[in-house]
Amino acid sequence: MTNSFDKAKLANALSSHTLKSATRFQYGTAGFRMEASLLDPVMFAVGLLAVLRSKYHKGKTIGVMVTASHNPEKDNGVKLVEPLGEMLVQSWEGYATELANATSSADAITSALESIIAKEKIDLSQPARVVVARDTRPSGKALVASLVDGVQCLGGEIKDFGLFTTPQLHYVVRCINTAGTEDAYGEPTEEAYYEKLAAAFKKITAGYPRLSPLLIDGANGIGAPAMEKLGKYLGDSFAYQLVNNDVVSSGKLNHESGADFVKIKQTKPLGMDLKYGQRACSLDGDADRIVFYFTEEDGTFRLLDGDKIATLAADFIMDLAKQANILVQREDGSKTPLHIGLVQTAYANGSSTAYVKDTLQVPVVFTPTGVKHLHHAAEEFDVGVYFEANGHGTVLFSPAAIKAFKTSVGATPAAEKAIDALRALTELINQAVGDALSDMLLVEATLTYQQKSFAKWNSDYTDLPSRQEKVKVANRANFVPIKADTELSHPIGLQEKINEQVAKFSKGRCFVRPSGTEDIVRVYAEAATREETDRLCYLVCGLVFDGYGGVGTRPTTFLP
Ligand code: 16G
Ligand code: MG
């Protein structure tokens, strides 16, 4: 057991990355995220922490993704990925914050490191392996160089995969750490990723007529070139047309485009000519989110968001499992049907929750916002379908479910076909993290198998009108969410006032929560009609702004 490191080497390496401003950093929902120009010391600190995390896992490979997702191009960010491709364990988020803030001096960083090493009993004689990738942001390359300095000064090995989508980085991390085990996830290369997805998609859709071409909005980010490469592997099995694929011109990334823009504004992105009868989708800046949409004949925009993707997927998998008569081996020796569950957040449309419970008859679990919470809850099922309304999500298969698919033999040709489709779905769906490209193929494979149009898919249930607004407040930490973000315990008294307003509206629902990624609080409202929804949202924004520290302009701009 070694617990000492070369302090002079650390001090020397830090001297090129010292924090000079008064900025305070915090590892939040999506890692560190801020203006790229502030991130250099953070990257160095993350390099150090990645080495410690790898040593803690006895040399397993840790991933680092450099991206700010749907944020503007001037921003960047960084997050750490655990050996099986999950998000960094929550108990280490505090260490990330401590280390980043300790980059102001050699003494501070030395003692921060020593304290983590002691607390986690890390043996520094263990090897450390780190892999890194970045999205297309111009600031990414220099930030990776700062990370490399951090990794190398503690003697870690680093491999730079260059430009990747976020889910591709999660994929290679999982592949590397499972190689040679019975859970081997694949070859840790970009090509193998495309090959795996394309082969699974072809298996499910073989023999069915191809759907009309899908318009894909690449948000002028990394999803665009990745889609072009994936398209080559898919060949004739999939027809698409890519727009917003300019990753060269500056200022275009996520600009009035991408999944976040389309979801929030409920409109098509800039740069897309969406005609009646066409089907479209938008990826976000790092391709871990996707939403679908189309227009009605009268031009009405229809969004098929994460809730709709979740219900489509759950329904399809349940159907296949029924046809295949899948039984899962339990620890007590019994065999029982597949246990499917759906995980949502407070942002899920009330109609989707009712549809899942009443029509699909699938249990629903609610968690706070943030993928790590949903992912964790989904692991409790044989098939755990989790999606945030914003289009981030995936479907997790338990080892017992995968085993059941592998060993089941169909009693009829139809049952055999359903089993084949289930097996292919476990290959098609990214098990590490929500993945826009994988989710896109999941939706397209389902719709092809069912020969279902977007309009038919959309008619499964009708969304209640909803509205989301931001309110700028002096201190968002005063707002403390409870009950999976559906209520606030603080500021004292605000929740009662919200409840009073909600009670006035038919099918009214409204909640306020502090954002984990922006310095604002979010207000979400839904009600029976568009007018009522907007009114409820406005009233609650006003409550927050007037009584609980609103700053800047009072949010009234969206009043009808
Ligand atoms: C991050 C989360 C996402 C969540 C969003 C909430 C990941 C990979 N992403 O983007 O799950 O919905 O934050 O943002 O964890 P907010 O706290 O600003 O509303
Ligand atoms: Mg993203």
TrEMBL record:
The catalytic activity of this protein is classed by the Enzyme Commission as 5.4.2.3
* Record-annotated active site: 69
* Domain Phosphoacetylglucosamine mutase AMG1, residue spans: 189-291, 305-451
Q: Which reaction does it catalyse?
A: N-acetyl-alpha-D-glucosamine 1-phosphate = N-acetyl-D-glucosamine 6-phosphate
List the pathway annotation: Nucleotide-sugar biosynthesis; UDP-N-acetyl-alpha-D-glucosamine biosynthesis; N-acetyl-alpha-D-glucosamine 1-phosphate from alpha-D-glucosamine 6-phosphate (route I): step 2/2
One Pfam family recorded for the sequence: PGM_PMM_IV
Source domain of life: Eukaryota
What binding details are noted for the cofactor? Binds 1 Mg(2+) ion per subunit.
The cofactors it requires, by name, are: Mg(2+)
Binding locations of substrate: 388-390, 513-517, 522
Q: Where is the Alpha-D-phosphohexomutase alpha/beta/alpha domain?
A: 60-89, 108-179
Keyword tags: Carbohydrate metabolism, Cell wall biogenesis/degradation, Isomerase, Magnesium, Metal-binding, Phosphoprotein
GO biological process entries: carbohydrate metabolic process; cell wall organization; UDP-N-acetylglucosamine biosynthetic process
Amino acids binding Mg(2+): 69, 284, 286, 288
Give every Alpha-D-phosphohexomutase C-terminal domain span.
471-537
State whether keyword Magnesium applies: yes
Q: Name one GO molecular function term.
A: magnesium ion binding
SUPFAM superfamilies xrefs: Phosphoglucomutase, C-terminal domain, Phosphoglucomutase, first 3 domains
Instruction: State the InterPro entries in the record.
Output: A-D-PHexomutase_a/b/a-I (IPR005844), A-D-PHexomutase_a/b/a-I/II/III (IPR016055), A-D-PHexomutase_C (IPR005843), A-D-PHexomutase_C_sf (IPR036900), A-D-PHexomutase_CS (IPR016066), AMG1_II (IPR049023), AMG1_III (IPR049022), PAGM (IPR016657)
- Role according to the record: Catalyzes the conversion of GlcNAc-6-P into GlcNAc-1-P during the synthesis of uridine diphosphate/UDP-GlcNAc, which is a biosynthetic precursor of chitin and also supplies the amino sugars for N-linked oligosaccharides of glycoproteins.
Q: Which family does it belong to?
A: Belongs to the phosphohexose mutase family.
Q: What is this protein called?
A: Phosphoacetylglucosamine mutase
Q: Which organism is it from?
A: Rhizoclosmatium globosum
